[in-house]
Amino acid sequence: MRRGILALVALACVAATGAAFVALQQEAPKREASLLNQPVFPGLADRLPAAATVELRRHDGAVTLKRDGDAWLVAEKHGFPAQQGRVRELFVGLAELRLVEERTANPELFSRLGLEDPDTPGATSVLVTVKDQAGRELAALIVGRRRVRTGSTLPEAVHVRRPGESRAWLAEGTLRPDIDPLLWLERDILDIRRDRVASVTTQRAGAEPLTLRRVAPDGEFQLIGGPEGFKADRTRLDDLPRALEFLSFSDVMPAASLADAPASGEAHVVTFDGLAVVLRLVTHEEHRYALITASWSAPDPPISENASASLLRAEAAKEEAEMIAARVRGWAFRLPDWKADVLTYRLEDVAAREENPS
After folding, report:
1. DSSP secondary-structure letter at 226?
2. Domain shared by 321 and 289, yes or no
3. Which pTM was predicted?
4. Residue 86: helix, strand or coil by DSSP?
5. Among candidates 126, 139, 127, 137, which has minimal Cα distance to 43?
6. Last residue of a domain, one of 157, 184, 211
7. What is the pLDDT of residues 128-151, one digit of tens each?
8. Count of H-run helices and E-run strands, the chain
9. What are phi and psi of 339, to 5 degrees?
């Protein structure tokens, strides 16, 4: 009996799917030859240099990008810089979208294409709106589901609908209208490779500082001031000179808003070519944020002509310090817990584990 019921349910599901597919095909209006294979927004590429704001909105979130000179900023993240490449990618995608097939004019079927009103609870559609400085609309488009690619030669395509219109289209092109602000941020802070590091000092609030130092780029890091007989875990020690490699953040806030946040520790990293980076960590809502400063001073001794290629010459190192300082000034960066732990290592955190006598 139970097996027979399950079979009937399965047949019903197949029938419903088939009916929806047929309905979608039947509702497709006749193609208009004058519109097919035409840009969704004719002439948009010529108008985009005037773009001043971009809004990507869904019922459960939004991202607002604002132009600031040659840069684009993310409003929902206090005006932190966006990835300029992603903004360009969005504009190119909008300008190059081409209508290739009419899908339906029946609003009851929009949800199957992800093209329902973006304000509808549970909707997956995203409304993309581009405006100029005066607030004039340059482009507006509801973006739905991508076409499932059944072959490597099939071009990218996405279902789209213009706001206020009752026709849905399939358009060829690539468009990624993400509504998570973090996906638009330029999240890489800095990248200081181990080969350049001369010394690292970390200090957790309320604990003694921990310092590693070496005298030459090809030398081994030595623990400074450890107690007699102390055995360190070399792998954990090596976490320290690598602490600023590929450093990125998981959120960002204005530094001024954390002025009263309790301190959780500090890290100081100095390179052989004169770069000095200081990270002051504070705790906010159970997360640790880093306030970063960077500076440069002529190294002593100076970099020799036959020094490692990984070391920067004076002008390059000075320019790097200035670029880092400009990028981090005024911001507090939320770090992953494991990275914040490394930047506040204590002596006991790098101690070698005792071997099990058994």
Report:
1. P
2. yes
3. 0.83
4. helix
5. 139
6. 184
7. 999 999 999 999 999 999 987 666
8. 6, 19
9. -70, -40
